Amino acid sequence: MTVAVERGGRVTGKQDRAVHPRRPRNSYALFLLPGALAFLAVVVVPFLMNTGVSFTDWQGVGSPGWSGLANYRELMDDAEFWESFRHSLFMVVAMAAVPTAIGLVLAAALFDYVGKHFGSRTAAVLRACFYLPQVLPIAVAGIVWSWILAPENGSLNEVLKAIGLGSWQQDWLGDPDLALYSVMGVMVWVQLGFPLVVFMAGLQRVDPQLYEAAELDGAGWWRRFAHITLPQIRPEIYVVLTWCTIAALKVFGAVYVLTKGGPGGATNVPSYFSFTTFFEKTQVGYGAAISTVLTVIILALSLVGLKLQTRAEDAEEGVRA
Amino acid sequence: MTTALRRYPVLVALCLAALFMIVPFLIVAVNAVKSPAEYSQNGPLSLPDGLYLDGLKDFWERVDYSQKLINSVLISGSVAVLAVVLSVLNAYAIGIGRIRGRTWVLAFFVLANMLPQEALVYPVYYLSKQAGLYDTRLSVIIVFTVIQAAFGTYLLSSVLGQFPREIIEAARIDGATKWQVLWRIVVPVSRPTLGVLLVFFFIWTWNEFLLPLVMLISNDNQTVSVALGVLQGQRLMDATMTNAAALLGVLPALVFFLVFQRTLTRGIAVGAVK
């Protein structure tokens, strides 16, 4: 995206200088002042405080005592911490990998199949259905699903009973062996609309002649999917994977409402773990260390994602030019 | 004919998948209008015998839902407007002013946007207590204005980077100040993008959970999301109440969705790839 900024500037930059040879460029910096101050107060200072506190044994009251890397050493030996990050990987599968894969197939099917044979209106209505859960507050989605998955009188169990699979009834969120998978299922439902919408928008800039030529050459739907759709929307795939992975690492509301990390820590995730450490155990220093580790991982992933995206966009520009 | 026959299974499969996505909404709607007796007798899958709205009414009064709606609208609305203004100011300096070191400034906003709220939540909680802003709607408005503006700055900077410079140069030669150029030319021309941002900021803030949960503890200040989430978290609700809660939580989202559908589905694509 920075690439676009540079690109736009190069064309007009010269005229710019010709009209005002010595315009002091920095006078625009004044417009950045309110933003800079606000960010300092709400993001920079709290973030530095949090990082600082992670090197202390602070309990939220009194003055914090310096403890160096003690919190981080403790984290390394804390089974609960590792367990919560292991659950994060499951969340990445449920919120990034699976929705991206399903979203790609759905987007291609809606765009290349339904859109062509049944009109773009039909495709738009179907897309809207898939996107709907994305607008729902996660807390509300959690209420809806915890009611559906309830062991007594829950809709899922009732459906199973009605179709003669009564023996499959489960305590979906209360069974430690099942709870994580139930939460994962809910997250797929929540997340699916995002990749779908981004991919369908991406497909709109693919030259229709590519599809027509492939179709004339006798390429079937799956071959067109693999050889045209996938390579053409690679930038979108990277964007979606990066965003969804980050969202998966941050997942909090769903866990809070569905399971509160339980039963017995079976669905604990880093953000919920840091939340309880901060506000229930009031081990602020330790909670800060957890969130700092989470931050480092997320920022590293963001940088990798941005890099892949820029490279894919450049490659695409190269092909077009 | 054969192609037509082959076509329909795909459409049917897609429609079934779409139905699966909206079934939870339908079940909630159906059960929210059943009386508790009917629910416990017939279970969640039967169609309602009649329209029983007392459950919804009771729940509405018990949680003072009007107040929650007012809080959510006030917070999300203020954040949407303020965050757009802040984004415009930042992006004007970066995208059009091309201030020195803009790549770094932009990288900073991108990183701020990625930062998990968990890394800010305790200091924000502590500092707001010190400043006497804890448990006020204002504190949540301030925090989310900044957080949403990080994304807005990132998006708008690249949009304004491609703003036709001839227009700005012409206005400057005619004697317009930078301030006038911003409000009389840049903002009106970019109105469609700003509209998308406004809608997104509103809905994102409406849906936020962690920070409002920490910052708003008194009943009078809580948002819809927080109030419903806390109720569910306490496991104090019976099935009928949960249903009422779910339906009342779903309805505003449904309204936004129907009103802003076009903006949402188009905007998200712009936001992701720009």
Short summary:
Chain B: It is a multi-pass membrane protein. The complex is a heterodimer of chains A (321) and B (274). Chain A is mostly helical and 321 residues long.
Helix content of chain A: over 70%
Average pLDDT across residues of chain A?
84
Shape of chain A: globular
In the CATH hierarchy, what is the architecture of chain A at level 2?
Orthogonal Bundle
Q: Termini separation of chain A (Å)?
A: 18 Å
Which quaternary structure do these chains form? heterodimer
Q: In the residues of chain A, how many domains can be counted? A: 1
Textual characterization of the structure:
The complex is a heterodimer of chains A (321) and B (274). Chain A is mostly helical and 321 residues long. Chain A has one domain (78-320): MetI-like fold. Helix content of chain A is 74%, strand content 0%. Chain A starts with a helix and ends with a helix. The relative contact order of chain A is 0.13. With 274 residues, chain B is mainly alpha-helical. Chain B has helices at residues 2-32, 36-42, 54-62, 65-96, 102-114, 118-130, 137-161, 165-173, 178-189, 191-207, 210-215, 224-233, 239-273. In chain B, helix 4 runs parallel beside helix 7 and helix 8 packs antiparallel against helix 9. The model of chain B has no long low-confidence stretch (mean pLDDT 86). The interface between A and B is large, with 109 and 109 residues.
Please give a handful of descriptors for the protein shown.
heterodimer, A: about 325 residues, mainly alpha, MetI-like fold, globular, disordered N terminus, B: about 270 residues, 2 domains, 13 helices, about 0% strand, transport (chain B)
Layout of helices and strands:
The complex is a heterodimer of chains A (321) and B (274).
Chain A: H1 2-19, H2 33-53, H3 70-76, H4 79-118, H5 120-135, H6 138-148, H7 155-162, H8 179-191, H9 193-203, H10 208-216, H11 221-232, H12 234-250, H13 253-258, H14 270-279, H15 284-320
Chain B: H1 2-32, H2 36-42, H3 54-62, H4 65-96, H5 102-114, H6 118-130, H7 137-161, H8 165-173, H9 178-189, H10 191-207, H11 210-215, H12 224-233, H13 239-273
Helix pairs in contact in B: 1-13, 3-13, 4-7, 4-10, 5-7, 7-10, 8-9, 10-13, 12-13
